Amino acid sequence: MKKWLVAFFLVFVFAVTAFGADGSLEKVKKDGKFIVGLDDTFAPMGFKDEKGEIVGFDIDLAKEVAKRLGVTAEFKSCEWDGVILELKAGKIDMVWNGMTITEERAKQVSFSKPYHSDGQIIFSRKDKQYLKISELEGKVVGTQLGSSATTAVEKHPISAKFKELRKYGTNAEALLDLESGRLDAVVMDATAGRFHNAKRQTLVYSEESFAAEVDGVAFRNEDVALREAVDKLLDEMKADGTFRKIEVEWLGE
Length: 253
Hints:
This protein is of the alpha/beta class. It has helices at 3-21, 24-31, 57-69, 83-88, 103-106, 148-155, 171-179, 190-200, 224-240, 242-251; strands at residues 33-38, 41-42, 46-48, 54-55, 72-77, 94-95, 110-111, 116-125, 140-144, 164-168, 185-189, 203-215, 218-219. Helix 2 packs across helix 9 (224-240) and helix 3 (57-69) crosses helix 9 (224-240).
């Protein structure tokens, strides 16, 4: 057998083996569903409504993608600090919950194309307003454990000047402590914080941001086929206007 033919055969075998090893999309279709991990208190991305049903911007996007794949989307509530471990352990198929794409996370998981822009801003009470990062010196500040807000805050020099940085299981818990006066400020995603405040009108928020960020859907590194299928369908949804319709419904104009 000629050398070039041997080389071609080896490349072909490698390609088939590599393709066969990634049965992520086929598995989802065979199971008839994919499982999404999320923090179910993270409104408006994914949260429980008054009836206890999980709803939100990311929820509707995931359901539409599932529909176009011919499967259903199942949602599993997870502790945010351990959601990547749940993904890597195979307990969920993806994390779709306003997850910021960071260098640290990208070392552990594979992200879809960015689909939403956000930032980490300061929320404080109307009676004690802190609208600049420099004003947080000597203050008690809250963030969500394992969040990109915590990472952004800890990387900023001002964090060394806090009176205390308190980390909470959820942003909802941090905001409750802020409103009750146990915190001076909370740093969190602008979209989620503004959505919370739109109904209550108890807080003010900064224009200054600790970090400008983009969100993506997280997958296991080996699940290339599933990630590429989701990317393709999100592109289609943007092209036909479905993505924008869902976006306006949950996030406004």
